[in-house]
Amino acid sequence: MTTQTASVHDRMAPVRRILRFLMDNVAFRFLAKIDSVEGLENIPTEGGGIIYMNHTSLIDSVTVVKSVQRNVVPVARFDFGNVPIWGIFPKLWGAIPIKRGAVDRGALEQAVQVLKSGELLLYLPEGTRRPAMGRAKDGMAYLAAQTGVPVIPAAVHGVEGFPSLSPKRWAKPGAQIRFGQPFCFQLPDGKVTREWLRKMTDEAMYRLAALLPPERRGVYADLESATSETIKQNCP
């Protein structure tokens, strides 16, 4: 970890402690609820890693940040200032905003530095909210190829309708989160091509889809067509 990167994370630590307190004692006591969390043993206890997840709700990424006790730095595809109340959370936390509709090399470089500093990154490969999975973009695969860190799928559902104070919504099930087993990518000799990044992305998304209920799997519903050419279970 470089001195500059370390100082940034040291500076963020007090703010993140306050935000985590607010999550535990306000946000997830009065505005949203988590019913179950499975697979926390799959989160590395140290070193860099990418947690990647499906995206169905405004706050699904917040449920993952709350559930993982290590600091997690989200990569967010929205303008923080345009999301009332909840939008201030990722900004204060130190999330990395990434531009829509273009390759945001500045954001990707920030993400690489976070991973190289030994932090966990949270990435939403679909880039936009959908009730069922859509075809993912390859930014997550690019970051994994650049850094060699393990990747961990996180399946989230049951968050729709939150944040809410409505008794009707609170009477229904809350968020259910499942973390899958970590894995690393096998890189080809020579240049990592766009086609290889595409294969890495799709193979990773099938692993995520397997953790979700069938109705949430979308374009990755046919699990029998999943391959594992780019995936190796054991990381260096």
Structure description:
The protein has 236 residues and is an alpha/beta fold. It has one domain (3-232): Glycerol-3-phosphate (1)-acyltransferase. The chain has helices spanning 3-31, 60-67, 88-93, 105-116, 139-147, 167-170, 194-209, and strands at residues 34-38, 49-53, 72-76, 96-97, 120-123, 151-157, 175-179, 184-185, 231-232. It has a 7-stranded mixed beta sheet, sandwiched between helices. It has a two-stranded antiparallel sheet with strand order 8-9. The chain is globular. The model has no long low-confidence stretch (mean pLDDT 89).
Outline type: globular
Number of strands: 9
Class inferred from helices and paired strands: alpha/beta
Largest sheet, described in full? 7 strands, mixed
Over the alpha carbons, how many angstroms does the gyration radius reach? Answer: 17 Å
Number of domains: 1
- The string of secondary-structure elements, in order, is HEEHEHEHEHEHEEHE
CATH T-level topology: Glycerol-3-phosphate (1)-acyltransferase
CATH class annotation: Alpha Beta
Oligomer: single chain
Query: Which band does the percent of strand residues land in?
Result: 15-25%
How much helicity do the residues have?
25-40%
- Distance between termini? 18 Å
- Count of helical stretches: 7
The low-confidence runs, each spanning 5 or more residues with pLDDT under 50, are none
Strands of the widest sheet, in order across it, are 1-7-6-2-5-3-4
Mean pLDDT: 89
**CATH architecture descriptor name:** 3-Layer(aba) Sandwich
